[in-house]
Write a structure and sequence with these properties.
By secondary structure, the protein is mainly beta. Among the domains are: 156 residues; 109 residues, Alpha-Beta Horseshoe (Leucine-rich repeat, LRR (right-handed beta-alpha superhelix)). The chain contains 3 helices and 26 strands. It is a single-pass membrane protein.
Length: 401
């Protein structure tokens, strides 16, 4: 996908199996963002879509998504969406080293099971209703939890800018507390976690709403007191506290408890939790190979895209097994390639084997002295001209030419 360099994007992949292959075998396969493992897609229902989202800072003019390593069924994808963020939305200090993988984006107090997204959310984030139920997700709800809503406008033009429609609903703890437990997919890990609050009840002058975050086993999280109206500098205004880098477990229990001097129970409008995913270095030859395949935009063999080695090698490439792989073998025999031998091949310093036979390459053989590990070069059945370059005799490991 074409992107703008140094711009933040939401990437959303959706998978709706629907028994497209008539096998009734639910697929399970890996999903990667560029060279970085994103998650494992596990389909357990033919009619329920699996949705995966990530937020990443584009580091190049293109962004690739790869499906690989199927353990059951066939890898497939239904939709792939890209949404550009403006300004500082979801900025993190480590965004060049990590992307954010969505674990939860919840609209509390929702009036139906329907999600909220565009046009209510100009960035087309999907805010899932807290009425949607699934195993081990939004369970252990405190007694006295009630749903409230308003039709009054909410000021949301700060921070991550959640949509007004999401902030116009909330849950409140009429008995003094709100509690929830959710399983966070792919955790434990470090998280970007934010709660969204807005006071949407018209409290009397003698009424107050003050509360603290409560996470079992983590007393330090209970120190700050939330007074939404005071923190947001008024009613019907967004207040967005959170933790930009906090360790969270797979089974995450949390709650909000009113303080002793508060007349009203806590309120919660929305929440987002993302996991930090370290961006893989990728293969050392990725830029060279991107330049190589760009020479042949119409060739079938040049369409595989992404990193040539990670998460899986291109079909005509073999790579080393190190963390930042090198390409050691290229086989482009009989691909009907014309023109001169591309200079990019001479820059692959880890190359051991090069097979270009059975094409229509013309011109002279280039200088391969930068490929000191080359052992096997196959150039037969082409239309090459000129003498064999003296540099071939300087390759210390050459066995076949």
């Amino acid at each position: 996908m074409n992107v703008r360099n140094r711009t933040r994007y939401l990437v959303r992949a959706t998978f709706l199996y629907g028994n497209f292959d008539n096998s009734n075998v639910y697929p399970k396969f890996d999903l990667s963002l560029g060279a970085t493992p994103w998650t494992t897609v596990v389909v357990d229902d033919a009619t329920t879509p699996v949705v995966q989202e990530a937020i990443i800072l584009a580091a190049a003019p293109t962004l690739s998504v790869c499906l690989s390593n199927a353990s059951t069924g066939q890898p497939f994808i239904s939709t792939l969406e890209l949404r550009q963020f403006n300004g500082s939305l979801y900025y993190t200090t480590d965004e060049k080293q990590f992307f954010l993988r969505l674990s939860a984006r919840i609209n509390f107090g929702a009036e139906s099971n329907a999600s909220v997204r565009y046009p209510d959310d100009p960035f087309d984030r999907i805010w899932e209703s807290d009425l949607v139920r699934r195993a081990n997700y939004l369970v252990d709800v405190a007694p006295g939890t009630q749903r409230i809503s308003t039709t009054k406008p909410i000021f949301v033009s700060t921070n991550e800018q959640p949509p007004q429609r999401v902030m116009q609903t909330a849950v409140v703890g009429k008995d003094g507390s709100l509690t929830y437990r959710i399983d966070l997919e792919d955790f434990p890990g470090n998280a970007w976690a934010v709660s969204y609050f807005a006071e949407i009840e018209d409290l009397a002058p003698n009424q107050t709403r003050k509360f603290k975050l409560v996470i079992p086993g983590k007393p330090d999280f209970s120190k700050p007191t939330v007074d939404v109206e005071e923190n947001a500098q008024g009613k019907y205004r967004l207040y967005e506290p959170g933790y930009t880098n906090v360790p969270l477990p797979f089974v995450f229990s949390f709650g909000f408890k009113k303080t002793n001097d508060s007349s009203e129970g806590p309120i919660l409008n929305a929440m987002e939790i993302y996991k930090y995913v370290q961006i893989a270095m990728g293969s050392q030859d990725a830029n060279i190979m991107a330049s190589l395949v760009s020479r042949y935009p119409q060739a079938d063999w040049a369409q595989e895209g992404g990193d040539p080695c990670l998460p899986a090698s291109w079909s005509w490439v073999q790579c080393s097994s190190e963390a930042a792989p090198r390409i050691f073998s290229i086989t482009l025999s009989g691909k009907n390639i014309t023109g001169s031998i591309p200079v990019e091949l001479t820059k692959l310093s880890g190359l051991v084997e090069l097979k270009l036979d059975g094409n229509s390459f013309s011109g002279q053989i280039p200088d391969f002295t930068g490929c000191r590990d080359l052992q096997y070069i196959h150039l037969e059945n082409n239309q090459l001209t000129g003498a064999l370059p003296p540099s071939m005799g300087e390759l210390p490991n050459l066995k076949e030419l």
